[in-house]
């Protein structure tokens, strides 16, 4: 019999108390559920007398989407906890510290990052994050290199691939990113003014071919342990610090899928400047900042990944002449394709982004939506021809 049940705020306190070395035995603990409650509970447990706190995140056995509820494996809590530990080892300081894991209760007790803000909100408020490109490229280069066949023993990797199979969450991603947006699916959701744009997507066979190839890579290319959901809502940030959270979608997939998630969310924010910038001049400045971040993320990622390869590459495959250049070129092309796919789904698919959905004026919102769709479609269509990150940037610039 499983011991699983959704925790109350009082039970979250009891669990938090068992973590050694955080709280004073004297002072009272206060608990508050702060998650959005669609998939997981997130409790903030603090001790006012000492100012200490932890986060208790617990998976719920169902997903609540558009009023409906369907079962969803609790095993994702184990995946999230294990992924955070691996990421913390490979990229120290760039994820919350994990204090405790309970697979039966499907929970993780971790470092409280309430002194950071969720990057999506930070960007909407006009935040500038000078360390972000360096930190996120470091996170991706190190976690992805050291879990790939280039940086890890092949037999160990096979076992890890098995333990991170994550079939249910992969199926959600497959449907929502690579399937539903390209057909008249019930789960799709878009403003009525976008109906004609959506119908064009459903009829675009050139686009469908590229999406099928990206989907194949998503399903079969077990290149490295991905975060799997690396949008700006999974990043806690300040000007001085970056922390990646929420890797419950982690699985072994194509490296470009993670990089594409980051770039897509910066480009969605780029498209949303129709609203968030006050005038044309500040819009230009803001877009240049976002484009420069994208450039720096790719360039730093590539430099760091190549350096790790040169220093740690496994003899078995890493030393073949010409292989590194070929590999990096394919990574860039995958990145461009997945960037496009992750933009399109946020406009017509099930889950949108606040950057665009919160635009109050429907005409301004439609402009942002059309721009994001335009950029996304171009990136998908051209991904296999791209040879430089500047081409991705040109596509965004010339559409805007
Ligand atoms: P979900 O998988 O349900 O999206 P997240 O891990 O993204 O859950 O967390 C949801 C929200 O809970 C975050 O946006 C953040 O506000 C809060 N949260 C999650 N983890 C932490 C943390 N370590 N420190 C502070 N707040 C957190
Ligand atoms: Mg959420
Ligand atoms: Mg989340
Ligand atoms: Mg999540």
UniProtKB/TrEMBL annotation:
Residues 32-278 form the Aminoglycoside phosphotransferase domain. It catalyses: 5-(methylsulfanyl)-D-ribose + ATP = 5-(methylsulfanyl)-alpha-D-ribose 1-phosphate + ADP + H(+). Substrate binds at residues 229, 345. Pathway: Amino-acid biosynthesis; L-methionine biosynthesis via salvage pathway; S-methyl-5-thio-alpha-D-ribose 1-phosphate from S-methyl-5'-thioadenosine (hydrolase route): step 2/2. Gene3D superfamilies: 3.90.1200.10, Phosphorylase Kinase, domain 1. Its EC number is 2.7.1.100. GO terms for biological process: L-methionine salvage from methylthioadenosine. It holds the Pfam family APH. The keyword Acetylation does not apply. Catalyzes the phosphorylation of methylthioribose into methylthioribose-1-phosphate. This is Methylthioribose kinase. It comes from Cohnella luojiensis. The lineage of its organism: Bacteria, Bacillati, Bacillota, Bacilli, Bacillales.
